[in-house]
Each structure stands twice: as structure tokens, then as C-alpha cells.
Design a protein that fits this description.
It comes from Azospira oryzae. This protein has about 240 residues and is mostly beta strands. It has a single domain (about 1-230), classed as Jelly Rolls, CATH 2.60.120.10. The chain is about 0% helix and about 55% strand. The chain has no helices and 22 strands. The strands form four sheets. Strands 1-20-17-22-15-13-14 form a seven-stranded mixed sheet, with no helix packed on it. The protein is globular, with a radius of gyration of 17 Å.
């Protein structure tokens, strides 16, 4: 089963300094049919105006991954962590039993474009922690890049859930495959360009819920494509 989630069906919010698109219910956008997919709870596509951002606020019991599309984002938190992430880097925060953080665009003239992703942890009430590091040179290859995993293999960010987050770039003649173990769910989010998934055409901003599929075959379209794949544990 592949269920398309078209880009224009996403929730939208205009806060002036923040333009946001929500793949799943978030803040003032609520759709009881779109409360997440398995352990995946949030994919927000945010555009943050120069010199603005999210002031200090709290989270708990959530794995939060930030994937930069352009620009930069400055992080500070109540654990004493701080840093600026850019394209080709990943930021992961395990909120655990509670943490405060802020996220700001440090540029005076450049917009920050990012995806913020929330994944529910396997166990609640854990220890809060933070990590950021470089994953790959942006737009450099059509091979899978492991962004996040439960064990941090291949230089990925460590998340407290039996889930994988992978990224890929595909040119028009390029293809990649991913085997999905029995019972596992998957979700695809297209960042830019065009991609086909098992023959289903997807464009920038589109998503797809996946269940009862053993193999996922991705083919590049007329425009170079970039997308994320979430390999998720069976639904509880």
C-alpha cells in the first residue's frame, strides 16, 4: 500500500517571520486523519526569516531531528549546548523527560529553509541529550545517506527508536532500492525535484505512507530529486 500525501494537502501557517507547511497535525493545524504515521509524528517544512526564530520553549518525550535545506540555524538549550548547523549537517535532540531550547536564523539577510522532524521514542522519560555533526557534502551522490538510526552506524545521528532516516539524491537516470522488513512501515518525503516510488510519481513537497510493501524502488524523474525515507517499526 502506497498512499500519496500531496504537497498542497499539507497544513500551512503564515506567521510573518515563519512560513510553515505541516505534513501532519501540528499547532493550529489539525486533521484527525493526519496524526503521524507509526512512530513518525511531525514533518514541518519551515522557512525562517533572517534574524528571527523560535524563542526558548520546552519539549519532552520526542526525538527531534533538524535537516537543513538552505541557510543556517543556531541552537541553544537548557543542557548548555549550542551551535550552528548548515546544509549537509544534522541536528538531533532527544527531549527525554524535558528540555528547553531555542532555534534562530543567525543571518542578517538569508532565509533559513529546513525540515523539523519528530519521532516518538521507544521509551518515555529518558535522559535529554543533543548532537550535531556533518553527514555528507551536499548534493554529492545518488547513494543512500543514513541520517539517523538507533545505533549511530555510518556516522548517523542516534535516536531512541527502532527507526531509520535515510536521504538520497537522484538524477534523471538514477535509481536506488530499499528492502522493507515484514510488518515495518515507511514514509517518503520529497524535498525537491521529481521521484517515482514503485511507479508512483512524487514531486517536491509530496509524501507517501507505505505499508505491506517488501521493496521500495526509487527512480529519478526529469528533474533531479532529493528525498527522505523513514523506515519505521510496526504500528503499536
Amino acid at each position: 500500500m502506497i498512499q500519496l500525501r500531496p504537497s498542497d494537502a499539507r497544513g500551512q501557517a503564515d506567521h510573518g517571520w515563519l512560513q510553515a507547511k505541516h505534513s501532519f497535525s501540528f499547532a493550529d493545524y489539525y486533521d484527525p486523519r493526519e496524526m503521524g504515521w507509526g512512530a513518525l509524528r511531525v514533518i514541518n517544512e519551515d522557512r525562517v526569516a533572517p534574524g528571527t526564530g523560535f524563542p526558548m520553549h520546552g519539549h519532552r518525550d520526542m526525538e527531534i531531528v533538524t535537516y537543513i535545506l538552505s541557510g543556517a540555524l543556531e541552537h541553544k538549550d537548557s543542557l548548555g549546548n549550542g551551535g550552528i548547523i548548515r546544509r549537509g549537517e544534522v541536528q538531533r535532540m532527544s527531549a527525554g523527560k524535558g528540555v528547553l531550547h531555542s532555534e534562530f536564523n543567525p543571518s542578517a539577510d538569508e532565509e533559513t529553509h529546513l525540515l523539523q522532524i519528530w519521532i516518538e521514542p521507544a521509551l518515555k522519560g529518558g535522559r535529554a541529550s543533543y548532537d550535531q555533526h556533518r553527514l555528507f557534502t551536499p548534493d554529492n551522490a545518488s547513494l543512500w545517506v543514513l541520517v539517523a538510526s538507533p545505533d549511530g552506524r555510518d556516522g548517523s545521528a542516534v535516536i531512541q527508536q527502532d527507526a531509520l532516516l535515510l536521504a538520497a539524491h537522484l538524477g534523471p537516470a538514477e535509481a536506488v532500492r530499499h528492502a522493507l522488513a515484514p510488518g515495518r512501515l515507511a514514509y517518503v518525503h520529497v524535498i525537491r525535484g521529481q521521484v517515482s516510488l514503485n511507479g508512483v510519481a512524487l514531486a517536491a513537497g509530496d509524501g507517501a505512507k507505505i505499508a505491506d510493501e517488501s521493496e521500495l524502488a526509487f527512480q529519478g524523474g526529469a528533474e533531479p530529486g532529493e528525498f527522505l525515507l523513514f523506515d519505521l517499526p510496526p504500528a503499536a
